Automatic annotation (TrEMBL):
Domain ABC-2 type transporter transmembrane: 26-364
Keywords noted in UniProt: Membrane, Transmembrane, Transmembrane helix
Cited InterPro entries: ABC2_TM
Membrane-spanning intervals of the chain: 26-48, 173-194, 223-248, 260-281, 302-327, 347-368
Highest taxon of the lineage: Bacteria
Subcellular location, record wording: Membrane
Name of the protein: ABC transporter permease
Length: 390
């Protein structure tokens, strides 16, 4: 303790919150679990793809082998692997026994893709396209044309008027991930804040603290300390995810996610601070740990409803939610990944969120002062608002 912390008691409370949590096994365990989830989410998909190996295709001649090789080249070089069979019955047996996904056999005018009960559509289309390519090149050679001359004027380029920053599937998962990070962090730390307040009330520690530190300083310290811990936890999780992306050669995702990450931090901090004040009030309304189920319910609903909105709602509803305080912390960063959002929209959403955060914190501080030392019974929100300042 030094002169600076005595002059700023909220800083002393923040330090106390941080040091207490860093020694708390529950906090350490939850951080390790989230680290594990982040690592698994980035590394496991790549490992699964890597272990699956190329699809095996049975062939009985060199012509079919060239077709399969062409299909594999089109797919990136490791899409298909040929398995040479002695004759057609041997190839059919490989298919029947499940040793290969399909067989490419000579047909009347080309090839036959032979499967057991069905053939994967990707395999069929890949072999069909490769067969056309190889056949066209062979016919061109017979006619005295090079492949370039044969395909002149047939190139098709894809251009999008409003291109998305990421492929749909990738952006959808990243969007869910950002919303989930805010939801889980705000909920987890929120419950810890509420439980901490109740523990201090039950042990009468709060009465000692309130006698030497202004009650508002207790609130500011709790909010600041837990905000620092939450940001630290997210930084560690982000670092783990970054390492996972680099290990699995998915660094291209970072080029798009990195700019949005800055916006996410702003929305996260403002939304978390606003909710932290409400969670502290939820703890001050309770007198026992059992009371938290009812006093924290409004905070849980404020988090849960926007989360499902940001993940499952349609484009129009998500756009509206991205301007609504608290909901914008989960909706706007996701929109910026999947849409071309003008810069004025996140700035306007931040302004709305900033105003709401100030109002919520001011209301929370007022209720916190009125209810923190009330230890007789659990109070309701309406009752707390009606209480007069002591």
């Amino acid at each position: 303790m030094n002169g600076k912390t005595l002059d700023r008691p909220w800083l002393l409370i923040a330090e106390r919150e941080i040091t207490t949590k860093l020694r708390d096994k529950t906090f350490i365990g939850s951080t390790l679990v989230m680290l594990l989830i982040g690592a698994v989410a980035t590394i496991l998909p790549a490992l699964i793809v890597g272990k699956s190996g190329p699809d095996k295709i049975a062939v009985i001649d060199d012509a079919a082998t060239r077709v399969v090789q062409q299909a594999s080249t089109t797919k990136g070089g490791k899409g298909y692997e040929t398995v040479r069979a002695a004759d057609r019955p041997a190839a059919e047996k490989l298919v029947t026994d499940g040793d290969v996904k399909a067989a490419l056999l000579p047909g009347t005018d080309g090839y036959i893709v032979l499967g057991k009960d069905k053939v994967d559509s990707g395999i069929e289309s890949g072999l069909r396209e490769a067969s056309a390519t190889v056949g066209t090149q062979a016919n061109a050679a017979k006619a005295g044309l090079t492949p370039a001359e044969l395909h002149a004027g047939t190139k098709v380029e894809l251009r999008l008027l409003k291109p998305g920053p990421l492929p749909d599937l990738v952006s959808h998962f990243v969007k869910i991930g950002l919303a989930l990070v805010f939801y889980m962090t705000a909920l987890g730390f929120g419950m810890m804040i509420a439980q901490s307040v109740v523990q201090e009330k039950e042990s009468r520690v709060v009465e000692i603290l309130a006698a030497s530190v202004p009650i508002r300083a207790l609130l500011w310290g709790k909010v600041l300390g837990n905000a620092v811990l939450a940001m630290g936890q997210i930084v560690v999780i982000a670092a783990t995810a970054l390492i996972g992306l680099l290990i699995t050669n998915q660094a291209g995702v970072l080029e798009v996610v990195a700019p949005v990450a800055g916006w996410f931090v702003i929305f996260f901090v403002l939304g978390f601070v606003a909710l932290a004040g409400l969670w502290a009030v939820a703890g001050s309304l309770a007198t026992r740990q059992e009371d938290l189920g009812s006093t924290t319910l409004p905070g849980q609903m404020i988090l849960m409803i926007p989360f499902f909105f940001s993940v499952f709602a349609g484009a129009s509803a998500t756009k509206i939610a991205s301007f609504v305080p608290i909901a914008s912390s989960m909706s706007m960063p996701g929109r910026m990944l999947t849409e071309d959002v003008p810069v004025w929209q996140p700035l306007l959403a931040i302004l709305f969120l900033l105003v709401a955060t100030v109002l919520i914190i001011r209301l929370g501080a007022r209720l916190y002062e009125r209810t923190l030392l009330q230890t007789g019974r659990r109070l309701g929100y309406r009752e707390a608002i009606a209480l007069k300042a002591s």
